[in-house]
């Protein structure tokens, strides 16, 4: 299990760094430490709409004994010429506008009569009140995001706030998803007896994209070695990974195994259920991971082996999904010797998880209503209701 995971992870190198506009960086991993060329805030500014004052000038002001000052300047946000505040005067100031030199507090407009020529203060203000100090959030030169950080909305906002228009990020890994099987038919077409609709390709391509990769999908490769190689070869030069589904177990017509084993791709049985038959290696120099064809096996083994490897290749410092502990809502049994990934319904509110569907790796219906995988270790055969189990939320 751990060995196969390491093999798959070892196949993929980091994708190169590229500079992209911020709007194209969502979900990607930073390829550089982001430092702040300016502090944040970049200048002392007002937290409130009101009046900038010297706190000593409004000391003792109250509802009953207002203090009145002349309004010498009007400072909206965006005003760039800073006029110092003279003692005994006030500047009308708006939220985000620069606090003038000489002022040490802002009195909110609600604590005044809102005058424009002269203003009456109905309360005092301690020094520093409602002033957002330069650098109190981010100091100039500080590393604000480390390389490997996933760029979400807040991280992109911060990059813009410190003045960056572009960032160096790892480009998305390019994955060719190739589903094999002579029984597979395009969804929407008429099914002959013995045929099924192709579903792994669309599922795996979506999983690749969800993991942060780019997917090219090739869906109807028949169980024929020559046709399989012919489909694969012209695409090898443009992809970082080939991900196949089907044709890897023990029967006849195992097209993936038959086409790739002699080229050095290693096929093994991994002590995991679902997802036992696996293959990994290089075909003509290009990393290949071969997933079993049963839909649940395909999905789960993508989650367990491929997703973390893809995310690590894309530069993510945290390639794994978070793993939680939860309380089993019902007892489970598990065969010895293979780590089980049961499909589960996890309720974060109660911390309880209930297995959904059975262990069969064709049970796509129950996979689709599950929101997590429940991990049962290899040596565990029975767990009573109320046991603590590891849970990997899938969405
Ligand atoms: N004698 C043995 N038989 C099997 C073994 C074994 O060890 N000995 N392992 C079983 C396990 S476990 C799995 S998992 C499957 C893996 O099979 P393959 O990877 O060879 O996949 P196929 O035989 O091509 O297909 C299996 C199953 O999945 C359906 N399938 C395949 N591709 C798609 C697709 N793109 N969309 C929808 N459904 C797909 C296919 O029709 C089969 O029903 O082998 C067991 N057998
Ligand atoms: O490993 Mo198979 O994936 O048990 O169904
Ligand atoms: Mg097979």
UniProtKB/TrEMBL annotation:
UniProt region (Disordered), positions on chain: 335-357
Single biological process term from Gene Ontology: Mo-molybdopterin cofactor biosynthetic process
Enzyme Commission number, as recorded: 2.10.1.1
Class in the EC hierarchy, top level: transferase
Record family assignment: Belongs to the MoeA family.
Record's function text: Catalyzes the insertion of molybdate into adenylated molybdopterin with the concomitant release of AMP.
Gene name for this UniProt entry: moeA_1
NCBIfam families, per database record: Glp_gephyrin, molyb_syn
Segments forming a coiled coil: none
InterPro entries the UniProt entry points to: MoaB/Mog-like_dom_sf, MoaB/Mog_dom, MoeA-like, MoeA_C_domain_IV, MoeA_C_domain_IV_sf, MoeA_linker/N, MoeA_linker/N_sf
A Pfam cross-reference name: MoeA_N
Keyword annotations from UniProtKB, A to Z: Magnesium, Metal-binding, Molybdenum, Molybdenum cofactor biosynthesis, Transferase
Pathway: Cofactor biosynthesis; molybdopterin biosynthesis
Cofactor dependency: Mg(2+)
Protein name: Molybdopterin molybdenumtransferase
GO MF: metal ion binding; molybdopterin molybdotransferase activity
Catalytic activity: adenylyl-molybdopterin + molybdate = Mo-molybdopterin + AMP + H(+)
GO cellular component terms listed in the entry, alphabetical order: cytosol
Domain MoaB/Mog: 176-312
